[in-house]
Amino acid sequence: MALRHDQGIVLRSYPFGEADRVVVLLSPNQGKVRAVAKGVRKTKSRFGGRLEPFSHVDLVLYEGRNLDTITQVEVIEAFPHLRQDLDRVLAAGAMVEVLDVVAQEEEASHRAFLLLQRSLRTLEEGPPHRDLVTAFLLKAADVVGVGPALAECAGCGATGGLHRFSFAAGGVLCDRCRTPGAVALRDGLTGYLAALAAAPIDALPEEDPSLSDDALGVSRRFLEYHLDRRLGAAVRA
Ligand SMILES: [Zn+2]
Fold first, then answer.
1. Which residue(s) pair with 62 in the sheet?
2. 152 CA to centre of ligand 1 in angstroms
3. How many whole angstroms from 175 Cα to the centroid of ligand 1?
């Protein structure tokens, strides 16, 4: 039986059998990885709290026929400050939920991994930008190849008069290209979304609280449309 090394950020875990858990991780090289942590539901587990969601861990795995078994865990980054603040835990929860949906098994996902790692570090450093999750959703869409057109019309490429958003057309539309199903965006929202999508996750543009709710709503619905799946409560906050 072979041992192998891997690393990843814990997305979630779920009970498995009497005393074990399956841990779901995002690995930069392997995409979504599922592995069994034996005995973690006993009070004295040798893994302690090292396999909590958001932890970046280094693993030694014993290869199994269906699921690999975790034999050693070392924490690379634990994000302790993030965990002390409910708002930040909710934001991180929304992020891991999205990547749990979009990441594929056995498919390298360096960009998705780096996006999550940078986002968690940003949350670790202090109270987050109020639109961090929105920016994360836009960047996650881009990582999986469905990033919305925001700086120019998804229909004709025009850069002015972008007042509508079409989930089906893949982004903003000018007045000439507008389709019946396209939603109207309030003044300033197109530019704000474009700025959130373009900026590094740890250097987002100045907050505009008047646009936050709409920005999250459009971004979430866009991603849900393209994933063909509803995202949970954390992405609605
Ligand atoms: Zn157009």
1. 3, 69
2. 8
3. 7
